[in-house]
UniProtKB/TrEMBL annotation:
Pfam families: Glyoxalase. Residues 15-131 form the VOC domain. This is VOC family protein. It comes from Psychroflexus aurantiacus. InterPro entries: Anthracycline_SecMetBiosynth, Glyas_Bleomycin-R_OHBP_Dase, Glyas_Fos-R_dOase_dom, VOC_core. Gene3D superfamilies: 2,3-Dihydroxybiphenyl 1,2-Dioxygenase, domain 1. PROSITE patterns: VOC.
Length: 132
């Protein structure tokens, strides 16, 4: 029968629908993100997994997750977290919360905005994004 499948062309607004940041020390990770963003994450803990949810009113959400298969790392895909209008407001909290700044606020272009890269309290490499 062979043959080729027809090519699918996705027209998506966003190509990320959800993200999970792995943690070993769950509470330390929750505290880290609560501190750098000034938020209070809702948690859900059962016998196998612990999850803490980033508060969103609309758009893409995500969580911190601890449990089987949730291994922090500094390689692999890089997630860019929205840091509002000026990522320095979040970035300045990273080191006090137990993280490390790898790349300071850097201009992508005037049209595209700025980014910075950090290592969180669990050893995950992530980025921040802002338009200004």
């Amino acid at each position: 029968m062979g043959g080729t499948s027809p090519k699918v062309k996705l027209q998506q607004k966003d190509f990320i629908s959800w993200f999970e940041i792995p943690a070993i020390n769950f509470q330390q990770s929750v505290n880290f993100y609560n501190q750098i963003f000034g938020i209070d994450m809702e948690t859900n803990i059962d016998d196998n997994y612990a999850m803490a949810f980033f508060p969103v009113s609309n758009g893409i959400g995500g969580s911190i997750v601890a449990g089987p298969g949730s291994t922090p790392g500094d390689s692999g895909p890089l997630i860019y977290l929205n840091a509002g209008n000026d990522l320095n407001l979040v970035l300045r909290n990273v080191e006090n919360a137990g993280g490390r700044i790898v790349m300071p606020k850097t201009l992508i272009s005037e049209e595209s905005g700025y980014f910075a890269i950090f290592i969180d309290s669990e050893g995950n490499k992530l980025a921040l994004y802002s338009s200004q």
